[in-house]
Amino acid sequence: MSDAAWPVSEAERPRVAALIEELARHGLGVFRPHAHDPAGAIVPLPPGEVALERDRRVDFVAAAAAPARAVAVGWRWGSTGVEVCALCCTPDDEAPPI
After folding, report:
1. Counting Cβ atoms within 10 Å, is residue 20 exposed (0-12), middle (13-18) or buried (19+)?
2. Per-residue pLDDT at 55
3. CA–CA gap between residue 95 and residue 73 (Å, rounded)
4. Of 35, 43, 40, 47, whose CA–CA distance to 1 is shortest?
């Protein structure tokens, strides 16, 4: 899927903008769950994978391989409802490097 499949204007649609405004009241925002293909193009984040930030670096890993102490920072709607799609580790996490 190319970058053009997700036009920035989607976030500017009145209904989506209203949802973003409501989320902001709760200290939340919106992001596009994504990964990159071998050529570097943006593609949808595959089911079962998460974006994992550790030491200010983002890797894409199987959700089951993420450190237990990682903090959920992103969610999306999946086949079973709300699912975590982005995690972040704090500097004191004892997880081994990827």
Report:
1. middle
2. 85
3. 18
4. 43
What is the SS3 string spanning 23-73? HHCCCCCCCCCEEECCCCCEEECCCCEEEEEECCEEEEEEHHHCCCCCEEE
Tokens linked to 82 = 């709300």
Q: Are 85 and 76 in contact (CB under 8 A)?
A: yes
User: Residue 68's pLDDT is what?
Assistant: 86
Whole-number percent of the chain with pLDDT over 90: 53
Residues in the chain with pLDDT values less than 70: 1-9, 92-98
pLDDT of residue 22: 95
* Integer CA distances (angstroms), 71 to 31, 65, 75, 81, in order: 16, 14, 11, 19
Confidence (pTM): 0.74
Structure tokens at 25: 């009241």
